[in-house]
Design goal:
CATH topology of the domain at 57-192: Tetracycline Repressor, domain 2
CATH class of the domain at 57-192: Mainly Alpha
Strand content: under 5%
Distance between the termini: 58 Å
Structural class: mainly alpha
Shape: elongated
Oligomer: single chain
Order of helices and strands: HHHHHHHHH
CATH superfamily of the domain at 57-192: Tetracycline Repressor, domain 2
Radius of gyration: 19 Å
Number of helices: 9
Number of strands: 0
Length: about 200
């Protein structure tokens, strides 16, 4: 088995363990056992459990990000593209049991403070997806041309993160939070439109 496939297998098993048992109760031995490897084999890919956790969570976040990008890729209508970007991203977490469980167990995966963001590069790329949709809307003459693009993209990303925190970290009723979030997306979209 090639190195990339082995690493993918390790990260998949690690994600399953971290989402099921949490960081403290997950062991490298358990992950290795699920991969039909020895613990020593795991150390060829990561130096310790913390690095395995960061890589496993990063892989889950990158899959979420790829889903968001793929969802909007073929949409030409900028209104619908904005809606899809915002709602498909939120709904993905609802449907991804492992990522949802990780968010419930680790409130710092999505943090409001950039200084404390362990997944900063991934989150910056996610904000860039938002920014690219805004730029497309501006270029089409659909969104306000004089907006602060970086500030608006950061604001929209922060709203998304806040609702994820409410839904998963605060354990509020997810369907109600989803409904409020979807309504909020429509309010933001109306505010972006030119008159």
């Amino acid at each position: 088995m090639k190195r990339e496939k082995k690493e993918e297998k390790i990260l998949s098993a690690a994600l399953k363990h971290f989402s099921r048992f949490g960081y403290r109760k997950t062991s490298l031995e358990g992950v290795a056992r699920d991969c039909d490897m020895t613990t020593g084999n795991i150390y060829f890919y990561v130096k310790n459990k913390e690095e395995l956790y960061i890589k496993a969570v990063s892989s889950a976040l990158l899959k979420w990000q790829a889903h968001a990008a793929q969802t909007i890729a073929s949409c030409d209508d900028i209104h619908e593209k904005f809606r899809l970007m915002a709602t498909a991203s939120f709904d993905y977490v609802i449907n991804d049991e492992e990522l949802r469980s990780l968010l419930q167990q680790d409130p710092d995966i999505y943090t409001i403070s950039p200084r404390d963001d362990r997944f900063r590069d991934i989150n910056i790329a996610s904000v860039q997806i938002v920014k690219s949709v805004l730029q497309e809307g501006i270029a089409a003459g659909t969104f306000q041309h004089d907006m602060d693009l970086d500030g608006t993209a950061d604001f929209i990303w922060s709203v998304y993160v806040m609702f994820l925190i409410r839904a998963y970290h605060k354990n509020e009723e997810t369907e109600n939070i989803r409904r409020i979030y979807h309504r909020g997306v429509e309010v933001i979209l109306r505010g972006l439109l030119t008159c």
